């Protein structure tokens, strides 16, 4: 890729070694705290069992009056041991902290105020809070254990995909919720589970405002020079072959911000009004001129 470096950004301190581990631990602790708060503020008081060990603990509290934190520890400990056996010690080490501190935070924050008794609001805001917390835990390269471990064990033993294993386990929890708490509560649990997944995905791939443009033209050299000089962006020249003609040609790939799309199209149009331009979203871009991740 030809590079333009007009954005003189100071180099970032690389996150590795002890600093990387410190950041990971901080993310796991903060994420576990947020998850525990969301669970106690929204899910538990409204009896929303949106999958996972936390959902099972809601059912146990409703059915037996069991303390959710104790239920989660009781389930996480054997699952953690199975994870070490089937998935290896390294996975077990990364799961140990989250498996322990999440129930601890749930126990310590159990007497907080309840913001709403509306189950729809609780499922939405609880899903946002749990998704945010779990997303931070995953960013810290950690895990809160629970049925995530079970899903990975099922994947290893059966060959099922991880996503299918998670759906089967969470679906089982929500089915149990329909019998224990009623069909309506199970539907709220589905809403909470959906929102949680969307928030985690947003944290994983980012809220994209970046686009990728592919430009096919007979004047690629003129267009590339105009982009380099007028738009101040680098670009990549891809070797391609026409599917109908079989002719070799060059395709330009340009990564730009949302606010640069109009200028890019104007530049291309000014050089070659008949150019073929494809613009699509880039969920996350790392590198010079964009976000840099250690």
TrEMBL record:
CDD domains: YitT_C
Predominant subcellular localization, coarse grouping: membrane
Transmembrane regions listed in the UniProt entry: 21-43, 63-84, 91-108, 120-138, 159-181, 187-207
Domain DUF2179: 233-287
Keyword Membrane: yes
Matches recorded under Gene3D superfamilies: 3.30.70.120
Domain of life where this protein originates: Bacteria
Pfam family membership, one: DUF2179
Subcellular location: Cell membrane
Membrane topology summary: Multi-pass membrane protein
Signal peptide: none
InterPro entries cross-referenced by the UniProt entry: DUF2179, N-reg_PII/ATP_PRibTrfase_C, UPF0750_membrane, YitT
Keyword terms: Cell membrane, Membrane, Transmembrane, Transmembrane helix
PANTHER family in alphabetical order: UPF0750 MEMBRANE PROTEIN YITE (PTHR33545:SF9), UPF0750 MEMBRANE PROTEIN YITT-RELATED (PTHR33545)
Protein name: Uncharacterized membrane-anchored protein YitT (DUF2179 family)
Organism of derivation: Paenibacillus silagei
């Amino acid at each position: 890729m030809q590079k333009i470096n007009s954005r003189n950004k100071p180099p970032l301190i690389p996150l590795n070694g002890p600093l990387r581990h410190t950041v990971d631990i901080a993310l796991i602790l903060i994420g576990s705290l947020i998850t525990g708060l969301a669970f106690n503020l929204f899910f538990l008081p409204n009896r929303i069992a949106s999958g996972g060990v936390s959902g099972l603990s809601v059912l146990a509290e409703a059915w037996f009056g069991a303390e959710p934190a104790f239920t989660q520890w009781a389930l996480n400990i054997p699952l953690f041991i199975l994870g070490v056996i089937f998935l290896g010690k390294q996975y077990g080490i990364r799961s140990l902290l989250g498996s322990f501190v999440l129930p601890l935070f749930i126990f310590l924050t159990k007497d907080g105020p309840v913001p709403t008794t509306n189950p729809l609001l609780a499922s939405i805001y609880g899903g946002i809070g749990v998704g945010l917390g779990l997303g931070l835990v995953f960013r810290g390269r950690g895990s809160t254990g629970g049925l995530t471990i079970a899903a990975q064990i099922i994947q290893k033993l059966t060959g099922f995909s991880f996503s299918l294993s998670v759906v089967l386990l969470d679906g089982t929890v929500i089915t149990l919720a329909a019998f224990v708490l009623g069909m309506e509560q199970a539907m709220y649990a589905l809403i909470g589970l959906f929102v949680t997944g969307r928030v985690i995905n947003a944290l994983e791939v980012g809220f994209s405002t970046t686009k990728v443009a592919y430009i096919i033209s007979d004047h690629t050299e003129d267009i590339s020079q105009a982009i380099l000089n007028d738009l101040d962006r680098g670009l990549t020249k891809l070797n391609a072959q026409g599917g109908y003609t079989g002719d070799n040609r060059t395709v330009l790939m340009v990564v730009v911000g949302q606010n640069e799309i109009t200028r890019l199209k104007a530049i291309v149009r000014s050089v070659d009004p008949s150019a073929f331009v494809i613009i699509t979203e880039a969920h996350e871009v790392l590198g010079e001129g964009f976000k840099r991740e250690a």
